[in-house]
Amino acid sequence: MSAGAPAADTPRSPRRTTAQRVFVRTVSNRIGDTAMALSSGFATLLVLAILAIILIDILRNGIGHLSLTFLTQAPSEGMTAGGIFPAIVGMVEMVVLMTLAGVPVGVATAVYLHEYAPAQARATRMIRIAVSNLAGVPSIVFGLFGLGFFVQFLGAGIDKAFFHGQKVYGQPALIWAALTMAVLTLPVVIVATEEALRAVPRELREASLALGATKFQTVIRVVVPQASAGILTGMILAVSRGAGEVAPILFTGAAYFLPHLPSGLSSQFMTPSYHVYVLATQSPDVDATKPILYSTVLVLLALTFILNIAAIVVRARVRRQSGLAH
Amino acid sequence: MLNRETALPLPGERRKSKLLTTRPPQAERLPRLQLAPAPKWHAVVEWGLRILAASAVLAIALILIFIGKEAAPLFYSSVVRAQVTLSKMWVAQTWPGYDEAVSVWQPVSEIPKFGVWPLIVGTIKVTIVSMAVAVPLGVASALYVSQYARPRTRELVKPLIELLAGIPSVVLGFFALIVMATWFQDRLGLDSRLNALVSGAALSIAVIPVIFTLSEEAFRAVPRSYVEASTALGAARWQTILRVLLPAASPGIAAGVALGLGRAIGETMIVLMASGNAAIVSANFADSVRTISATIAAELAEVVFGEAHYTVLFFLGTLLFIATFFVNSVGDWTIRRMKAKLGGGS
User: Fold this and answer.
1) Best interface-test mutation with A: which of B64, B241, B269 has the largest number of A CBs within 10 A?
2) Residue A197 and residue B209: Cα distance in Å, rounded?
3) Could you tell me the CA-to-CA distances from A129 to A122, A137, B43, B302 in Å, in that order?
4) Buried-most residue among A196, B71, B124, B125 (CB within 10 A)?
5) Could A273 and B46 be called an inter-chain contact, meaning their C-beta atoms sit closer than 8 Å?
6) Model ipTM?
7) What is the tens place of the pLDDT at every residue in B44-74?
8) Contact check, Cβ <8 Å, A54/B167
């Protein structure tokens, strides 16, 4: 235990014997150790308790109204009855478009960064700094960007060129919301893909090159397939993020209520996350919408949790593989 | 041969000798060999990859350009400047009906008032509350998980906290609005249900995982030899943690705090739903507040394209972008330096 008394007598406690000093020190160290272990353990428990309280509250209040019809019916009677079917369809469409637009770019960026880019070059460093800063841009700023760039600039430009100035794409639309979300989730895909590429053993690349494959063939046929689980992780995380965010789509395409499902890229769409926001803050009759609100939150939360758990499982498998490889 | 432990300066010690600095090992590079001849189109595709890889840089540039573009009329458009100028936003004005100079945010009154101080004070108040909750909880739980918990507990707790990070902010905002607000009001007897305390507390739930993850990484990156040396010198465990572990991990913790701060400043949905959205300047944390991000989210949908209000909201967006960019860069730089020191390299 604590390494006995110091050899020299300290001037502060001239009257204590060595045994007393050892005793005082042992006791104070015990107290200090216990206090530190308890306080940090308590903090951990508190954080976990917050998670548990949120989950239990939403599960308890949301499960009652949840049913198959809730998932397959449109809202009715001023949002006090019916389900969230159009919101689910809208979300799926948005997320699919987002994935199609964002994941290839993210994977390409990660492949370039890890397989081709010279590590110390200024351009490489710039890309890395841009990626990590992009991850930190507030989501509402993405909303402003989506409005300013996609809707006002690209959309209005397309209208001028192809629709004689008629407003088709120059207004909030599914495609612009999906593209805004694709930019937002780009760093998620890049980081996950790069981690997966890092886990591919160098010997595989060398073996492929030694067999006469070119660099590009090695990357496409050996490295990327080996990293596919990691790429999948990035995709799942991106989808989970895209399904949950509201701020970026506030001005770029989300609608509170639509009488019909989105008919094309230029139509607006409903989505559960935005639905929760509007129901919670702008409902005229809070008590009547509360069961629906809770059930919508439960659906949203269950979806993001399933996706996140899937990502954690896949990533754990990737890490274990790379652990074996080295 | 230097190993990573001897190359690390002790906490508080500055490294002087150039010889002691180790460069991070280069990312795995293949030796220069005669490779198989590649067809021309491979080079084309590889150039394509290079161009796609610039997308992140392009995105950052486009964000700045297109937000700045919508905010720019504030500086040259006479129509916009007739209603609002930079000095009217930042300097308190004596408005008709007021006795003294005040900074007021009333963009849709008869005389539109764009004083930004209420919003900035609101943002700072919410951020202070959230960081005051999140920093101790995040760092302490990271300490527990990295130092005290058994491997099996760690395997369980870490994913759970990561799961906390996966909760959409609109769900946290909803929870704050419906559950936490009532709870706080009942316990503390507050006048307004939605205020800086409630929204700050809800915001901290989003910030804790950020601080936790980076702090935990930082604690685990401290070489064992530090702890062993301290223990060998007779220090108790709590002394080792406070005097050795914490200082050695401080860059990583600081990085986590910086990234968490960036998240807190920019987070929108939680504060939009739970802060009460009253633009008042006060030191009381139980008052309703309105943050910059919530102002943009709440008002942009109702403004006319190109008018003064629209321009000011984009200006606020630019401010938010610059503020978070700065905070995140500091955090990011700290992480990079730490990784380089520990010889991880990435």
Assistant:
1) B269
2) 25
3) 10, 12, 26, 35
4) A196
5) no
6) 0.88
7) 888 889 899 998 899 999 999 999 999 999 8
8) yes
- Residue A81 phi/psi, 5° resolution? -145, 175
Q: Find the CB nearest B136 among A43, A112, A217.
A: A43
Asked whether B231 and B317 are in contact (CB, 8 A), the reply is no
Q: What is the pLDDT of residues A98-149, one digit of tens each?
A: 999 999 999 999 999 999 988 788 889 899 999 999 999 999 999 999 999 9
Contact A233, B255 (CB under 8 A): no
Q: Taking CB atoms and an 8 Å limit, are A280 and B177 in contact across chains?
A: yes
| pTM for this predicted structure | 0.87
| Burial state string for B141-153 with b = 16 or more CB within 10 A and e = fewer than 16 | bbbbbbbbbeeee
Contact B147, B219 (CB under 8 A): yes
Kindly report the nearest CA distance between residue B235 and chain A, in angstroms: 7
Note whether B145 contacts A: Cβ–Cβ < 8 A: yes
Task: Write the DSSP assignment of B153-200 as a string of letters.
Answer: HHHHHHHHHHHHHHS-HHHHHHHIIIIIHHHHHHHH--SSSS-HHHHH
The one-letter code for the residue type at A166 is Q
Nearest chain B residue to A109 by CA distance is B53
DSSP three-state, residue B229: helix
**Residue recorded with tokens 């993001």:** A304
B301 vs B13: CA distance, rounded Å:
54
Pick B55's closest partner by Cβ from A44, A50, A105.
A105
